[in-house]
Amino acid sequence: MGRRNVRFPHRSNGDARRPSFSEMSDGPSDPGSPTRTGNQAKTDPPAVSDYEKKKATFITRTIWTFVMIAGFFSALLSGHIYLIAIVTAIQIVSFKEVIAIANVPSKDRNLRFTKSLNWYFLATTMYFLYGESVLYYFKHILLVDKVLLPFATHHRFLSFMLYVMGFVFFVATLQKGHYRFQFTQFAWTHMALYLIVVQAHFIMNNIFEGMIWFFLPASLVITNDIFAYVCGITFGRTQLIKLSPKKTVEGFIGAWVCTIIFGYFMTNILVRYKYFICPVTDLGSSILTGLECTPNPVFIPQTYTLPDWPLLPKTIDIAPMQFHILVFATFSSLIAPFGGFFASGLKRTFKIKDFGESIPGHGGITDRMDCQFIMGFFSFMYYHSFIALHKASVGDVIETAITGLTPEEQYEVVRGLGKYLYNQGIVSENILECLNGDLLRR
Q: How many Å from the N-terminal Cα to the C-terminal Cα in the chain?
């Protein structure tokens, strides 16, 4: 079986390219058009030098770098909901860019619903993942709403049925002679969903857990990328990996050291502000309104005794987070770059320079996020494994009461809590009398 059934829009028969303006002008001219001979000879415009091209590219890249930095910090300080919107947009655009790599022109094959199915599976996956996040962090709101309660309690089943509908529709639209192409598209779509949408979902969860778990990993990756370039051009000699010829071992190691130093000082700044360390309780919060919570012990400095060595103090006060940041900085320096190497290998496979042109001077969104996806995934897993405090939440208690108790038993729980709060002096006697009355609707 050959590869004649699959073509990619980025390449066609090796060196085929779109004809330039001068090449299009080499053919026979129209009767009234000027030709290269005679008094109306046409002169070619002066060629732009490589220096001018690089200069223009550098200026464009610099301008858009500052635009992205300004937009990022504006969203960071404006509130969690704006960062979630940015992550959502990144998911969608990155998915579109990756899918476009293997997008065979369906018009030539007269195949319907190819692109529609791609977007349907994206919407279904995002509905499931976003629903899981909202239920996990805001179940105390959803489970007490009469309209949202059925969607909350049956969310996973609804998501599964939506996916099954797309799967059945895909099988029903298979056409003889195009099986290879259609199954390739099906597999490619699911790979993109896992590598982009699923990993980006964990980045969004990091925002809910606290701004620091989003900002710090992202800044570590950016810092590592910058210092890998600086160290590489300064004293880099040994090639690191063939997929990225410009990456050097010296730059790789130097960036690791610089990223650890940056992470230590940046963490020391962020742990002082509750806006960064508190989990989100109000999506309308911003740097101006702030957040209030009992800080995780990992952010509270503790006293450690040092060995009795000359020139060393006997004790040192440091937050445990400073030890954890060593792991984060190491992962962002030694492991996360392989997300970029993976993307480089993918682009070489399809003979493209960038995933897209979403960001002028930088390429596509995926080109800038290739390391961030795996870093965000790692941050979520590490946080929940070694840092998160696992305790019952209001949403967990409400969910248990709604799904595990009868209405009469739920009423007894409310009365018992009311009596306890009255004994603690938290509620008044009038509220207790109301709770002890017959409030059940019969």
A: 71
